[in-house]
């Protein structure tokens, strides 16, 4: 992806988040943003990138949305409602854009939506993937995915799922829902392995991108930091997990020089920050990341500090007492 | 403002029976605490009183009735409330105060408000 495409994609997500709030309609906002993105990709490489790319995209997308609303009102023989939101895009402060993105995160991962709808919506709106890309990534026919996305957006509109950040009291449970959705996306890609189509393994990178976005939006939340750390540490071993013929190589046999030292370092640092936030009761993602770090930092399988691994598993049991944890093999297999 | 119907699914109870007075009190408490958003609602007689109506052969055809509810389920539709709430989050929060939420389940559905 070239620099312009990356910039357009990143800013497109922010523009979409704002436009959903302004129009109150996910579909309309998505079409209008898509239109602006296409125009940007056509004109920017030719005429140069505007000074304020986000403002350019937002103005273009808003104009498009207004056009659509007017046209539909005319078709219905009605006067379009007064729209005063076409004015100055500079009004959208950094704080507003930050909040709009958070609203989008929590709306996409609303517990009233099925988990598969959440995953699809997050990839489509926050990740900026096309419906076809989401479908291929999740191994679902494109028509099925299109229907799933339409149904989810319909439910948001018709059941009036709010576009807002949850109250502090409900934040922890809502946040763990968001983390679960992103981690599911990561595992879809990570578990796909080497032989799988690129679009599928790309989901791991996509989940890390979403994790970074969450960490940028909520830099003080241990859940978010732990999730990002866990994904980085697991993904650091990715190249060493697969042999030349696409077969899975287990942890003891992996060539550790092929692990990504930059990702490991970043993951370990994130764990440190997260642990300092809540030293008494670490978040479950932080603990899982710490276990991954024990493996990532060991020079060889024989030199793994099993004592640390076991004590982190004990912590995990105390913060997250589920049968799955209790039966997890303590050696770790990948 | 959005309008929701909260359908209560519980044991197939007869609300008029004296032994239901205790359970009924829970709903009266709910009605008091949620008075600001309740726009209507009723309790229903048990499913044994239900009659399912079908017309065979299209409109104007024979009216065929059968004894009992449309769907036989373990938990029965025993009542409903009409709630006017700001959004789904509020509707869910209010519905979680219905005894049916812990004695059975509450289905929350948005109501279509056709333009007058």
UniProtKB/TrEMBL annotation, chain B:
Membership in a protein family: Belongs to the YciI family.
Record-annotated YCII-related domain positions: 47-114
Protein name (Swiss-Prot/TrEMBL): YciI family protein
Pfam families: YCII
